[in-house]
Amino acid sequence: MNPAADGxxxxxxxxxxxxxxSSTDARxxxxxxxxxxxxxxxxxxxxxVNSLNAAEAGGGLSGRxxxxxxxxxRITLHFTPSWFSVNMGTGITSILLYQLxxxxxxxxxxxxxxxxLNVALFLVFTSISAxxxxxxxxxxxxxxxxxxxxxxxxxFAMGLATIVNMxxxxxxxxxxxxxxxFTWAMWWLDSIISILICLGLPFLQFTRHVQxxxxxxxxxxxxxxxxxxxxxxxxxxADNILEPSQARLTIIVSYILWGAGFGLAFIIMTLYYARLxxxxxxxxxxxxxxxxxxxxxxxxxxxxxxxSESILHLSDRSNQALAGASLFxxxxxxxxxxxxxxVSTPIALVxxxxxxxxxSLAISSLxxxxxxxxxxxxxxxxxxxxxxxxxxxxxxxxxxxxxxGAFRILGTxxxxxxxxxxLFIASMTLVRVWHGTIFFAPCLAxxxxxxxxxxPPARKYVFEPRQRSRSRSASRNRSSA
Length: 481
Fold this sequence. Notes:
This protein is mainly α. It is built from 16 helices and no strands. The longest helix is centred in the C-terminal third of the chain and has 41 residues, at 330-370. The radius of gyration is 24 Å and the shape is globular. InterPro entries: SLAC1/Mae1/Ssu1/TehA, Sulfite_efflux_TDT, Voltage-dep_anion_channel_sf. One of its GO terms (molecular function) is sulfite transmembrane transporter activity.
């Protein structure tokens, strides 16, 4: 990636992987990484590389297989967590098509095909990621200690959430009660991963990352939006496949997840607004990050709407709302559920309005930059799809709950725009995957292109060492002397 200046200020760009996958510099860095590995770097080893080179020199099938093996190793080494943003975009596309207000015959089938594609991609990406951190164990801490690469861990949880949603919507209980329980178990797993990422990544930012206001991007939102997405998924499961007792527990946990994620997201959105005002819009490689604040607004609004709707349906099914059946009568529980429904709708409208403001500012900034600068495609362009997609889900949900034709039409139009964006970005990604130019790991480029032998857990804050530690150090020094 080429470092760039932002509005005349010196802004560190190469560490911000929302723009990763530059078709020219990525190949150069990848070649550098391969050269480093030929010299014995990483876990490739000199013996393995020499055998590959010897096989290649021999020509024929063995040489071709050697080239394939080396290319596969390069792809695996440079396979970053940001690839799960492909799952986010593909998953939200299948959900939008499945729930489009105006359906035509066969649209559900198209949505289910995209859903199957998303499941296949998720399994492939997870397998490659597992291979990456198994073959090169130091890549785990290297990625975690990188200021921007680590933030993309949130895309894994959100990509999984889209699969959970479609399992509940498209399959539901038609595959039996056991599959419904399996879907619920996947939701619990996704929720645990989401909250760990939501709390773990800010901890790393506080203790292991070097940050400054000019390096704040919308990517900061990825870890904290994950619980909001999981909360919205909980509302979908509670309303479609769960028994009343399971649904009530899921709704309670979902509200906790929503609060944990949206509270932090709102703080980061404030910081990001200050960064944009002080240091101006990001450069072309990072401009997509301006759309990411749309995510917590759209998904936050949809989550509130879906959870309140689930509570209302729960009271109809079991004569209880959030509180236990022993605390309130059936009539009181129904009144409580209606009250939650009534309060959630205007709050969701407020969040939708905030999202509309961010969408307008992001589009304006993108057009203004496009007039003077070339926008080069990279993997970060997948950041267009999911934020816009969840804003569409909030729009169509408002259309349903308010019985508003305007919201239904607007949601349909925005959904079609998202689908066209998904088709365009997917085709551009496939071209670059074929040429091998989109596989680029900024965390590797920052350290010379090869996995380190050891990654020290360096704390970035000032601290006074423990007295015991100093005494042990002094004892070791005396012994060595």
